[in-house]
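Objective 1b: paired records.
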Amino acid sequence: VQLQASGGGLVQPGGSLRLSCTASGVSFSYYGMGWFRQVPGKEREFVATISWPGMKTAYADSVKGRFTISRDNTRNTVYLQATSLQPEDTAVYYCARTHLQGGARSESDYHYWGQGTEVTVSS
């Protein structure tokens, strides 16, 4: 079971990144997916979630209107398009699979996690 996240990096304030997360060895179909983020010393926080097959999405208030979650079910991949990035978006971003088809906001509803990809927003 593997969720491989990628796409992180260093970006200037106001910039954009697209994070990707590809599932292998684990079923992607019929499960909701989510993105979380964590700053060292702080708890991991919810960022966005998407249902199966992708009609429903939900976002944390802090990223609403700036981030977009999507999925390509033919590629077993979920994306997080992050725009208008700010220094407070700096974190390690994790993708995860929930057993709930509609997606979920609670970390406890996720049972498979990727390794994380680091995003640094700095000038």
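Objective 1b, second protein:
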Amino acid sequence: QVQLVESGGRLVQAGGSLRLSCAASGGTFSRYVMGWFRQAPGKEREFVAAISRSGGNTDYADSVKGRFTISRDNAKNTVDLQMNSLKPEDTGVYYCAAKLKPYALLSRHGYDLWGQGTQVTVSS
């Protein structure tokens, strides 16, 4: 059974940087499109970034474009989210997600498996 475990969330000052990591186990990681989502208090979960199976293609929400970078290491079964120039509005629980269906396309929807989340708090 595939499992996703996020790490790296913490309290950081505005303008700072943070790197989140998601470790996958129990499946063939290189077959999965991976994504990062976040949920702020009182708001719905929203898409942040996604990366194709090979890592050659990425997609970002407009709100994080130019500040966040998603990457993956298929040898280590990990997907990371490098977050720079953090803003208070980046605060929330960050979730790693995977599309388990074979040949799934890179997109912002249709994710089958979710991690438990890691809290990111950006203070002003």
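The chain has a mean pLDDT of 96. The CA atoms of residues 68 and 83 lie 4 Å apart.
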